[in-house]
Amino acid sequence: MTTDELIWRIAGGSGDGIDSTSQNFATALMRSGLDVFTHRHYPSRIRGGHTYVEIRAAGHEVQSRGDGYNFLLALGDSFARNPQDDAYYGNEELKPLSENLDELNEGGVIVYDEGLLDDEDVAEIDLEERAEENGWHVYPVDLRGLAKEHGREVMRNTAGVGITAGLIDMDIEHIEDLMEDAMSGDVLEANLEILREAYGMVDEFDTTHELTVPTGAHDTGQALLSGSNAIAYGAIDAGCRFISGYPMTPWTDVFTILSQNFPDMGGVAEQVEDEIAAAALAVGASHAGAKAMSGSSGGGFALMSEPLGLAEMTETPIVLLESMRAGPSTGMPTKPEQGDLEHVLYTSQGDSSRVVFAPGNVEEAYEQTRLAFEIAYDYQIPTILIYDQKLSGENTNVDVEFFDREPAPDLGSTLTEDELKEAAHDASGKFERFSYDGEDGVSPRSIPGQKGGRFLATGNEHTPSGHISEDADNRVLQMNRRLEKLDVIREELDEGETNQTYVGPDDADYGLITWGSSQGAVFEAVDRMNDAGHSIKAVSVSDMMPLAESELVAFIESVDEAMVIEMNATAQFRGLIQKELGRYGEKLTSLLKYNGNPFEPAEIVESCEIRLDGGAGEPSAQVRIEPAAGD
Amino acid sequence: MSAFNAIGDDREIDRDEYTPEVEPQPTWCPGCGDFSVLKALKQALPEVGRTPDETLLVTGIGCSGKLSSYLDSYGFHSIHGRSLPVARAAKLANPELQVIAAGGDGDGYGIGGNHFIHSARENHDITYIVFNNEVFGLTKGQTSPTSPKGHKSKTQPSGSAKDPLRPLSLGLNAGASYVARTAAVNPNQAKEILVEAMEHDGFSHVDFLTQCPTWNKDARQYVPYVDVQESDDYDFDVTDRREAADMMYETESALYEGTVLTGRYYVDEERPSYQEEKRAVGELPDEPVAERYFDEDAEWERSYDLLERHT
Ligand SMILES: Cc1ncc(C[n+]2csc(CCOP(=O)(O)OP(=O)(O)O)c2C)c(N)n1
Ligand code: SF4
Fold first, then answer.
1. Among A53, A493, B103, B217, which is most buried by a count of CB atoms within 10 Å?
2. Which residues fall within 8 angstroms of residue B66, CB to CB, at 6 or more apart?
3. In what residue span(s) does the Thiamine pyrophosphate enzyme TPP-binding domain sit (chain B) (predicted)?
């Protein structure tokens, strides 16, 4: 068991306040100087059912969930009990304890709610024997009773946090502060009493474990944010003031954040009848001069394919989000997967020209959202951010200063009325919107209501003046012009601050390639393997279309073999690389995981070692090694 | 400083301003009812006082969808059935624009049916013109949602087994605050109704009966019309939902056999538009979103100022 980090898992029923409790505890850990990373596991139901949140905290940087965990606070599922004592939500109250044991590390600590979980039930899962085998330290506490005594039963979360803090020797000052910010009056008083009493109770315990809260100290202010927060904030700073959408997990998070903030910022948020409308609204709003965004998850994004094409053909800038969950179809609504890559790259008819970014962590989510707006409005092209349920919901601490940027509300290649006076017009006085001066494929646009700017936008192929046309020469000209933008964008992205992130020694001869939210676990695995004497490096790619070709070529060329790591069953990113680069079939292998849970670093370490040993053996976890062509 | 100088320009507008001096020439068939819509619109717009540069016409797909190509205003020829969401958003981004959406019966009542219902329900301040020729024109005469029962086409060779949709009743029940029907063969009324519809503050739905001589020679769109408001036989209060609904029922039942009635069926001046409602709850800014991007003094809020809740 690693002792320099705390990996705390709080488990209970959905609706038991697990989320807010863990959010506060994570914030308290961050405030005490630690780096934190959260991982949320929940079923697709509103109340009851087993759910947990894991918080990993350390005095050093953490970029991923850990391997297993070392502290379980099992609250029991209160919804498994009906107030009338009939099983109403199912007889599952033990699950928060029983379901979590497999991943608890050796020497781990267990606190469970004696007030809720029957002794007989607990006996049934052989807790004592298993604890002995694994060296676990078990502390049954009547959290429910303690909560009821001072307030209400729901406050047993607070009691659990108090016990935790006591057991790991953590100062409760930050927890108290957070409670004071969030509550007041009797509720606050009751919670504080419960917290302090629980904290104090530990003094009476006969403690046997050694786990304590790690120490850390930040130099600068920190903020605890999810990927969804970062995307929403990136959009705000990019000047986005229009969002339209239809709820679908997990994209709803961004939609909610912006819907709540836009009224105070002079922005417009619209919940509409379906996703076709949602994306079409983004097109309409952008056409009329707003910086506009929409988005969805798998199935909803499928409906957006049609307006996406419209944006491409009319060269209307929009930003779309695709927050993936496991598919096909409705799939596993609350589980992450990276299975929609091909869908996002290729959906919609015709030779498409869109730009796709895949941020790999919270900071990249912010940066690339800003970049997505910049590229969309400079080049009049739809841009898409593809990310997943994991990045949507995971919270990481980020330096506050990181967000201290100037807003960039620039409408890109849009003309002012003065500039329009100089522009080309036809004999009717219509602005020649799609005429082209041969520079970078971009023909500047006007906005309805501007004097002298009127033009026709159409989803049909059209002439430089915007008239529908099936003329062969015109078709080739327009098509080439639209496609040319991608080449120019590729150049711009290559020259700019790179979106690809690397770890490991340059001269390593084994390489890992990953994308999106798998980044953290991969990078951590690389660090560990290098510490253990291997020589491995990794790249996390964000520019999916246009693909970061030159960087990938250089990386692949520099190693003997590279393993592409992604959360899907069909090796979609590896397929993209081989398609775009036209080779490397024999040099690329895959590590795939698609059971609904994100990678843990140890799975990656184990799988790499299997490959490094010459390909013998099978990984033990639910991951799959896909050999190279000809292997 | 205004970024959109075309907006609010109150000069006299000549109807010729709406006619492009150069191509494209309409590709509609001779005798097509769509010409009448274009003509009525060109006559109505100057009366409403809107310049071409402050007018945005969003159309769907089909013969009707070409309308935006032939009107010299800002235009957006979108995709099949989606004119309404595009138009709605444009109006939200810049409520000062005159926004009109138009398309066929297949476009608006079929594939775009969901958008029609919700645009009417929300009472967006836009005008929606549906060219109702009871047939899919551009794809060569298939049955449409308004084709009469028994209508024979290439895709329903034995005659349609479906009852036609009742667009006026649907518009009313969905929540449109202005519902009218007019007809290509009745140009004066058509112009008047379009003027009213565009001046109306809320969702104005105009079912425009257009003839398709190429695919639908049997349709009753060719017969002369009776204006319900001008006939003593049909006395009803257009501001009364119930009476309007009864009249619509009669009209829509009779269209395929009896007298064809056109005119205003429902006018609700009291109901606030969606834009007003949204502004009232603080979800639509007083100044158009679009204007801020051109305003050098605009203050842009930063995400940095929101971080406190995360620290
Ligand atoms: C998504 C989609 N489905 C089908 C079509 C083919 N399509 C083009 S026009 C049309 C019918 C249009 O009929 P209507 O709306 O009544 O207009 P009209 O041509 O009669 O004016 C269809 C089905 C299309 N363009 N897009
Ligand atoms: S096919 Fe019918 S609707 Fe289309 S242009 Fe010809 S007459 Fe008009």
1. B103
2. A468, B26, B27, B28, B34, B59, B77
3. 61-207
Tell me the count of A-B CB pairs closer than 8 A: 243
Gap from CA of B45 to ligand 2 centroid (Å): 24
First to last CA, chain B: 40
User: Where does the pLDDT of residue A81 fall: very low under 50, low under 70, confident under 90, or very high at 90 and above?
Assistant: low
Q: How confident is the model at residue A48 (pLDDT cuts 50, 70, 90)?
A: low
- Asked if the C-beta of B108 comes within 8 angstroms of chain A's C-beta atoms, the answer is no
User: Which residue's CA is the closest to the ligand 1 atom numbered 13?
Assistant: B136
State pTM to two decimals.
0.96
pLDDT, tens digit, for every residue of A92-111?
778 889 889 999 999 999 99
- pLDDT range class, residue A1, cuts 50, 70, 90: very low
Beta carbons within 8 Å of A12's beta carbon, 6+ residues apart: A18, A51, A52, A74, A75, A76, A77, A78, A96, A157
Question: Which residues of chain B from 30 to 69 reach within 8 Å of chain A, CB to CB?
Answer: 52-56, 58, 61, 66, 68-69
- Average of per-residue pLDDT across A18-30: 94
Instruction: Confirm if A550 and A506 have CB atoms less than 8 A apart.
Output: no
- Nearest-CA distance from B78 to chain A in Å? 6
Q: What percent of chain B has pLDDT over 70?
A: 100
Q: How high is the pLDDT of residue A439?
A: 77
- d(CA B239, CA B171) in angstroms, rounded, equals 15
Select from B22, B53, B68 the Cβ nearest to the Cβ of A453: B53
- Predicted confidence (pLDDT) per residue in A447-501, tens digit: 999 999 999 999 999 999 899 999 999 999 999 999 999 999 999 999 988 899 9
Name the helix (H) or strand (E) containing A500: none
Sequential DSSP letters for A1-20 = --SSEEEEEEEEEETSSHHH
Spatial CA neighbour of B195 closest among B61, B42, B33, B2:
B42
Which ranges of A434-533 would DSSP assign to H, the alpha helix? 472-495, 519-531
CA distance B51 to chain A (A): 9
Q: Which residues of A touch B52 (CB under 8 A)?
A: 454
Cβ atoms < 10 Å from Cβ of A505: 11
Model pLDDT, residue A427? 87
Examine the predicted complex and report whether its ipTM is higher than 0.95: yes
DSSP string, chain B: --S-TTTT--S---GGGGS-SSSPPP-PPTT-THHHHHHHHHHHHHHHT--GGGEEEEE-SSTGGGHHHHSSSEEEE--TT-HHHHHHHHHHH-TTSEEEEEEEHIIIIIITHHHHHHHHHHT-S-EEEEEE-SB-TTTTS-B-TTSPTT---SSSTT---SPPP-HHHHHHHHT-SEEEEEETT-HHHHHHHHHHHHHSSS-EEEEEE---TTT-TTSGGGS--EETTT-TT----TT-HHHHHHHHHHHHHHTTTSPPEEEEEEE-SSSPPHHHHHHHTT-S-SS-HHHHTT-TTPPPP-GGGGGGGG-
Contacts of A282 (CB under 8 A, 6+ apart): A242, A243, A244, A292, A293, A294, A307, A311, A318, A319, A320, B89
- Weakest mean pLDDT among A399-408, A429-438, A548-557: A429-438
Of B79, B115, B305, which to mutate for an interface test with A (greatest number of A Cβ within 10 Å)? B79
Please enumerate, as own/partner, the contacts of A602-610 that have beta carbons within 8 Å and a separation of 24 or more. Answer: A602/A67, A602/A525, A603/A521, A604/A512, A604/A521, A604/A522, A604/A525, A604/A565, A605/A525, A605/A528, A605/A529, A607/A563, A608/A510, A608/A512, A608/A525, A608/A529, A608/A534, A608/A536, A608/A563, A609/A529
- Element housing A417 (H / E): helix A417-422
CA of A523 to the centre of ligand 1 (A): 51
